[in-house]
Write a structure and sequence with these properties.
274 residues, alpha/beta, Rossmann fold, 10 strands, 41% helix, globular, binds adenosine-5'-diphosphate, translocase, ATP binding, membrane
């Protein structure tokens, strides 16, 4: 499903003395089946933009197209239901949203709420629990008896149980140890590849954006100031510094080696390796 933001502006508390524009004229096209990263300093508008991908927020001006659906200021709630089915959001610390007595019930909750039969919802839960790397026996446990990492996987299974075509990830590795971070990012990349899931990653991690994304967008003070391939975005340190962003560790490492052995030699080594 293609996604397109056209001249999207968003104001919190619009029309009140507290009105605050958090997005200004944002244009962004995300092709179906691609992996998009959105990066930017704190307060640049990433969370605000993220909530536009499934109509949690509606643009004050401009339009958001999700496939053939359009979200704009006057859109009614009923039109948003089908969009919410297609676009799954994994919020930061999604495990905080677990609430059912058992893991099975928690994963089944979303689809059953959208009219999927109990039998089908259970089938999805059983296949997803393995996909997210947990044993089937965990389905009968209380989500609150699990470890933090396991809870996160259950919450992710709950989002996937809706069978979304687009998945939006809001700092999905926050609070995990380095191994857990790698595993979760690997899981999403596998899903993206196997199911051609359009993936939108909002992240502070330049490494993850550089490693996984086909396209990277930089947000700065509510504007989408740059869109490009990771190699163009992350190869230009001056540009990153302008938006208060650090280059990924691998780029920093390359620069250190360049200082030690000379730029040309590093370039030659990299070319030969390719
Ligand atoms: P990021 O996710 O990049 O940190 P946000 O989208 O959270 O950025 O915030 C963008 C701007 O909108 C910031 O200036 C922030 O203070 C403001 N903002 C965020 N949420 C609200 C809100 N509920 N009410 C008013 N202003 C908000």
């Amino acid at each position: 499903m293609d996604i397109q933001l056209q001249q999207v502006s968003y104001a919190y508390s619009k029309g009140t003395p507290f009105e605050k524009y958090a997005l200004h004229d944002v244009n962004l096209s995300i092709k179906s089946g691609t992996y998009q990263a959105i990066i930017g300093h704190t307060g640049s508008g990433k969370s605000t933009i993220l909530q536009h991908f499934n109509g949690l927020l509606k643009p004050s001006e401009g339009t958001v197209r999700i496939g053939d659906r359009i979200i704009e200021a006057e859109k009614k709630a009923k039109d948003l239901k089908s969009i919410r089915q297609k676009v799954g959001i994994v919020f930061q610390f999604p495990e905080h949203q677990l609430f059912e007595e058992t893991v099975l019930k928690d994963i089944m909750f979303g689809p059953m709420n959208f009219g999927v039969s109990q039998q089908e919802a259970e089938k999805r839960a059983r296949s997803l629990i393995t996909l997210v790397g947990l044993p089937e026996s965990i389905l009968e446990k209380s989500p609150f008896d699990l470890s933090g990492g396991q809870m996160r996987r259950v919450a992710i299974a709950g989002v996937l149980a809706m069978e979304p075509e687009v998945i939006v990830l809001d700092e999905p590795t926050a609070g995990l140890d380095p191994r857990g971070q790698k595993e979760i990012m690997g899981l999403f990349y596998e899903l993206h590849q196997k199911k051609s899931l359009t993936t939108i990653l909002v992240t502070h991690s330049m490494e993850d954006a550089a490693r996984y994304a086909d396209q990277v967008a930089i947000m700065h003070e509510g504007s989408c100031v740059l869109i490009g391939e990771p190699r163009d975005i992350f190869g230009d340190e001056q540009l990153l510094a302008k938006y208060h962003l650090e280059p990924p560790r691998v780029v920093k490492f390359q620069r250190q080696v360049e200082k030690m052995i000379g730029k040309q030699l590093v370039k030659t080594c990299l070319t030969e390796e390719e």
